[in-house]
Design brief:
alpha+beta, Immunoglobulin-like, 2 domains, 6-stranded mixed β-sheet, 10 strands, 34% helix, 40% strand, elongated
């Protein structure tokens, strides 16, 4: 079935795509490129897709709305850790007293004492600081072991981003690993969950912390 396109309709579609993609590429800050560009780029693609499917300009608006929602997920997918740092905060003896350990272990063990996200409430475009307080327990004949620290961001039971793991050698004792997560400017209001995970060999532990994005 053929469709006849008038000049005004073609111009409307072209302007729609140019407007959205132009906004995405002309903004200079990295956060907008990572998050806002996903929103705007998704809207532009949705606009064109909606037009092609419907054959008229009204399909552009519908497609743009759907594409923007998809672009929001892309924006979260572009989020990366920043300002990562880790330090030992307790000795092996302190941890033994903390957990009431009296016998040596046969293999490396890890245990999260607490995962946190601060501040509790943020706005889009701000930053959340995540921290994992955990313990490493080594056999007597080991000086250190490779440990992986990770964070997964979730909302409404869905994974928004698996943040890059940090892999380091750790000695026995308590450790604190923390980093910043920039909140995309298009983040939807609601409660977000950070799953903290630490792993060493076959031993791993997880804990959840929460923060709220408000308008």
């Amino acid at each position: 079935m053929s469709r006849t396109l008038d000049r005004n309709t073609i111009i409307a579609v072209a302007l729609c795509a140019t407007f959205f993609t132009g906004c995405a590429t002309q903004q200079g800050n990295d956060q907008l490129k990572g998050a806002g560009a996903g929103l705007l780029g998704g809207a532009a693609l949705g606009c064109l897709t909606g037009f092609i499917a419907s054959g008229h300009a009204s399909g552009c608006a519908t497609g743009a709305a759907i594409g923007a929602a998809t672009g929001a997920v892309v924006g979260w997918g572009a989020v990366r850790l920043s300002q990562y740092q880790a330090e030992q905060v307790r000795s092996a003896q302190d941890d033994q007293r903390l957990y009431g350990l009296s016998k040596p272990v046969d293999s490396t063990q890890v245990k999260i004492r607490k995962g946190t996200a601060t501040p509790n409430t943020v706005r889009p475009g701000e930053t959340v600081r995540v921290a994992t307080d955990y313990s490493v327990i080594l056999p007597q004949n080991m000086q250190s072991a490779p440990v992986s620290e990770g964070w997964t961001l979730k909302k409404d039971g869905k994974v928004l981003a698996d943040l890059p793991q940090q892999n380091n050698q750790r000695t026995s004792g308590g450790w604190s690993a923390d980093a910043s997560i920039p909140i995309p400017t298009n983040a939807q209001p609601g409660t977000y969950v950070i799953e903290h995970k630490v792993q060493a060999g076959t031993s791993y532990d997880t804990d959840d912390s929460f923060f709220i994005v408000s308008r």
